[in-house]
Design brief:
Layout: H1 3-7, H2 14-26, H3 30-33, H4 50-68, H5 70-83, H6 85-91, H7 110-122, H8 128-134, H9 139-150, H10 162-175, H11 177-180, H12 198-209, H13 218-225, H14 229-240
Helix pairs in contact: 4-5, 4-7, 4-9, 5-9, 7-8, 7-9, 10-14, 12-13, 12-14
Bound molecules: heme C (2 copies).
Length: about 240
């Protein structure tokens, strides 16, 4: 079943809506089945501000509501469909990026998505387009965006070069799995890397490595700096194929 159907609110059929609600509730994404950690392990080394914690609390509240009420789910879906028209141009209607250098948002950990939307809107992370777009949403809307995308399904890339894939897996298991999860699904509040676009992962690793300042994380800079060009390309290709 496609993501569009999971999220579609346009059908007037009751059964259809019911199926959509069940999928929303029982979606395969790990984090939504569990209470959201207000303090994630990924916070180490990152200065979390009061407003970040307040936002995460709001995320938990709205998520809890959505798990009990189809009305809240419908609200999130409807909001998402109406307010992501611009986002679709780059991130795709189903949350899978359509342009080079753009990340997939589908299936991403909602805490991570919310944090990033905040960082774009207050300048802690810099990207010109994202900065101006992120600041057009109020707090509740940011939460709804994060939940909307977290429920979509990311499409993994096919293995293109088996030798490079093997090399990428080696790098991943040694240097990344402890934080991003054995299968890259962003357990424990870390960014999900599974199915992420290889070109975007490559771009981010290069940024962390060269301290461009567009985003700053001491852990990621340390890890990225320990890798050479081939290892970066290999690990980027590897994670893009994970489901
Ligand atoms: C013109 C293209 C474009 C549009 C339109 C756009 N984005 Fe983005 N978005 C990007 C790029 C490029 C990045 C990566 C920025 C970077 O290099 O740090 C990004 C990053 C993000 C991230 C961080 C994801 C991650 O994995 O760290 C989120 C969340 C996001 N966008 C949400 C949105 C939302 C919500 C909208 C609509 C309101 C939107 N974007 C519209 C291009 C776009
Ligand atoms: C010590 C924990 C830790 C390790 C090890 C680690 N990461 Fe990360 N990673 C993080 C944190 C925390 C973030 C979020 C940083 C931020 O907000 O800028 C992150 C973010 C990322 C991002 C950005 C995701 C996005 O959607 O924009 C990529 C790509 C990434 N890591 C790749 C890797 C790879 C590849 C490895 C192994 C070579 C790795 N990381 C190892 C903690 C870690």
């Amino acid at each position: 079943m496609s993501n569009k159907i999971i999220f579609s609110n346009s059908g007037s059929h009751r059964i259809f809506n019911c199926v959509a609600s069940i999928l929303f509730l029982c979606g395969s994404l790990n984090i939504n089945a569990q209470p959201i950690a207000l303090q994630a392990p990924s916070d180490k080394g990152v200065k979390l501000e009061e407003k970040d914690l307040a936002a995460r609390k709001q995320l938990t509240t709205i998520l809890n509501k959505a798990q009990k009420s189809s009305e809240t789910q419908d609200k999130i879906i409807q909001f998402g469909q109406e307010r992501t028209i611009l986002c679709n141009v780059c991130h795709g209607e189903d949350g899978n990026a359509r342009r080079a250098g753009v990340p997939n948002l589908a299936g991403q950990n909602p805490v991570y998505l919310l944090d990033q939307i905040h960082r774009f809107s207050d300048g802690r992370r810099y990207d010109r387009t994202m900065a101006s777009l992120a600041s057009t949403f109020n707090e509740e809307e940011k939460v709804m965006l994060a939940l909307y995308y977290s429920k979509m399904k990311a499409r993994p890339n096919k293995i293109q070069d088996p030798e490079q894939w093997d090399a990428g897996k080696k790098v991943y298991d040694i240097a990344c799995a402890q934080c991003h999860g054995e299968n890259g699904r962003g357990e424990k509040g870390y960014a999900r890397l599974a199915s992420q676009k290889a070109d975007y992962v490559l771009k981010m690793l290069n940024e962390y490595q060269s301290y461009t300042g567009r985003r700053a994380n001491p852990w990621m800079s340390a890890v990225a700096s320990s890798l050479n060009k081939e290892e970066i390309a290999a690990v980027a290709a590897y994670v893009s194929t994970l489901k």
